[in-house]
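User: Fold this one for me? It's Peptidoglycan hydrolase-like protein with peptidoglycan-binding domain.
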Amino acid sequence: MRFAPVLRRGAVTAAAATLAVLVAAVPAAAVPPTTPVFGATIDGHAAYDPQTTCDPVAKPGTLGFRELALRTYPTTGDSGIVRACSAAEVTEHKEGRAWDWTINANNSADHARADELLAWLLATDAHGNQHANARRLGIMYIIFDGRIWASYRASEGWRTYTGSNPHTDHVHFSFSRAGALKQTTWWTAADQPASWPRLERGASGVTVQVLQHLLNAAGQTLTVDGSFGAATEAAVRSFQSAGGAVSDGIVGMVTWSRLLRQVRTGDQGSAVRAAQVALNASGAGLTVDGSFGPATQAAVTSFQSAHDRPANGVVDPAVWQMLIAGIG
Ligand SMILES: [Zn+2]
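Assistant: Here's what I get for Peptidoglycan hydrolase-like protein with peptidoglycan-binding domain.
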């Protein structure tokens, strides 16, 4: 049984939205969420810790994951987080640490979306950690289309689900208490404030040029002069409020993350200019023409190789983060 979703988007703090919005820059085509750059430190597989109390308030980690999934797959829906205390069953929904993602298992496109997100959750990361994103998010178990994956029985992989509801109209995610409270590394370890320059009125330099190009890519019409003045501040506020974020005119990690747009060979425009300016700050020597051709591609692969990243020539959020951090 499903209950009406409780939509409390206002309850999502700016910080909560940070990682979710990383994926907003990615086209709506089938692309899994972007994984931030993490170190080797990772959470263990969540132990089984079922609902014991009733506190039907959506928890921040649950909200954050919902935001991540819905931003990545905007055609999919929300079947709710909280469930009333009067419900008879034991369910983490009653503690606001479970989410039902509306997915029709009988629709192949929908099924593919779910398969993609689940594969992303359970993939091994660059450090060799199995089920890395599921662990970082504190996912305790997942039920979909007659199968269950549980972190506490991870070695068994996907198993047949024997509960009465086969979960063919939604994917159920339960979170550990730490995951629900955003105490897991997805929420705590990707935040690298030192590598996200904080820009506000009065700032100047190459980083401001990158910012201005990215704002233009988001629809603003700034003159790119590398000077964070009144016009740039107004553009930042406008961009922030359009995204429902706190409109403080200050560019920190949240705003940077929302501004980043993935660019690759063949792309054109201000986001490409931003990447070219940032690459030049690392010595690329590109003409800033907004056209992502072979020279830009070569500069990106060279930058990636120098930073031990897969040299695929795509400026994804992880590359953006390193580029912006590298401007200094
Ligand atoms: Zn559920």
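One thing worth pointing out: Residues 9-188 form one domain.
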